[in-house]
Amino acid sequence: MDKVQRVVIAGGGTAGWIAAASLSRLLGKSLSVTLVESDDIGTVGVGEATIPPIRTLHKLLGINEKEFLQQTNATFKLGIQFEDWGQIGDSYIHSFGITGKECWAGEFHHFWLRGQREGMTAGFGEYCVEHEAALAGRFSLSPQQPLNFAYHLDAGKYALFLRGIAEKAGVKRLEGKINHVGTCPQTGHITHLILQSGERIDGDFFVDCTGFKGLLIEQALHTGYDDWSHYLPCDSALAVQTDVHKDPQPYTRSIAHDAGWRWQIPLQHRMGNGLVYCQRYLDDQQAEQRLLDAVDGQPITSPRLIRFKPGKRRKGWHKNCVALGLASGFIEPLESTSIHLIMTGVVRLMRLFPFEGVTQAAIDEYNNKLDSEMACILDFITLHYCATERDDSPFWRHCQSMEIPDSLRHKIQLFKDTGRVFLDDGDIFRVDSWTQVMLGQRIKPRQYHRIANEMSDTEFEGFMSGLRQQVKHKVESLAKHGEFLNQLRG
Ligand code: FAD
Q1: 428 in ligand 1 pocket by Cβ < 6 Å?
Q2: How many structural domains are present in the chain?
Q3: Cα 448 from chain centre
Q4: Residue 207, in any domain of the structure
Q5: Catalytic residue list contains 77
């Protein structure tokens, strides 16, 4: 039970700098923080779409929104548009907003389902401001009209931006390649790192942010990895940046193809593009050609190949080491959950921080919470692949028949049979998110909660059309996303 005062962060990608900025800014009086990164190794260079809780982190860190937008070339994100997922030609948006109005017995989709049965034709999204604003390319920040949003950001610039915050708060940065991780023969705890230059860095607690390889958590502590590739077939991505000549849309695009999907993430100054695929069904050369044929604009970087194994480290916290970011595992880029997991990981670590020494109870609490969070994300992402009617390629036929987690099988069956969605502990997605994706992926509930029938026909029509009118008015009052960004940048 040695006291913990010296924290060493290995790695300076998004994970390393989020950890450094948070620990120094929020616990800097009790801890000294050192970060080591290697310019030669560099970062993974992707990870540019986020989800709304990132704003909570920014609030905690006291980040000024205008400064952040200027320095990271960020744009606003109201959701993700999924194209060609359920069937070729389908399109739906998983938006971050609240759809309609819920009541004690169930959420708004029960009312919408009643409407559908009675011949109403309005789409589910037409009752959600963020959904309609995304489609209309509109966005504003206004206390009267608060929207639930996230950002698209330049990953390299974001790491630099956070580095500025961390260094101002006292983080010591060292540049160099870690060649050796020293451990205590008695406890197995990490005691120090040795750089290629020979420099030795001693620490009481270590945060592994070294990316996929997990230099500390895996290579030194041999924590083990749960491989989830039987649930998630994609294992490769090619990323390329292109120039842009039009206003950015306030949402990410995720377009399915016959062996995976493709992303489009708009920034102020460029577009981030990527093709995610399964090597078994598409080779790298074909994938590169497919990506280059599909992108808008001229490439400004060469396509970059990234291999990954969907899954997670068996323990996110082991001995005196917590892994964050890719070192702790990676599920899939779909639904942009990885940066979010860095944030929840670092906040959980700070809440449980072992100032008086590492205890097994704190480790177990951290790992249990992480496991439930990861299990829910696994279910949510797998849902996009398994709930499809596409059978136009071996990849999609595999997705239709592949093994899925029991918890997901139950959620799908419950929704099909009853229209109900209940969240598990640790679920980072709301009922609204599950409903939008289930409906978008063509899962049709056989019934809805009869609470929706408590209104008379006239009351019901007034209720539904009133909600749509409110959404329409709110969206009309918003600025065009591109114009709003220009205003903010001054
Ligand atoms: P890295 O960026 O790989 O950083 C590792 C750091 O460790 C670097 O600084 C490196 O120099 C250092 N390092 C490694 N070895 C050594 C050594 N021996 N000595 C010294 N330093 C060392 N997440 C999202 O939230 N949204 C997305 O849209 C999204 N898209 C993605 C798309 C793809 C294809 C992939 C693969 C991931 C995506 N992610 C996304 C995940 C996201 O990219 C990562 O969570 C995020 O970038 C954090 O990465 P990292 O800091 O853990 O690792």
Answers
A1: no
A2: 3
A3: 30
A4: yes
A5: yes
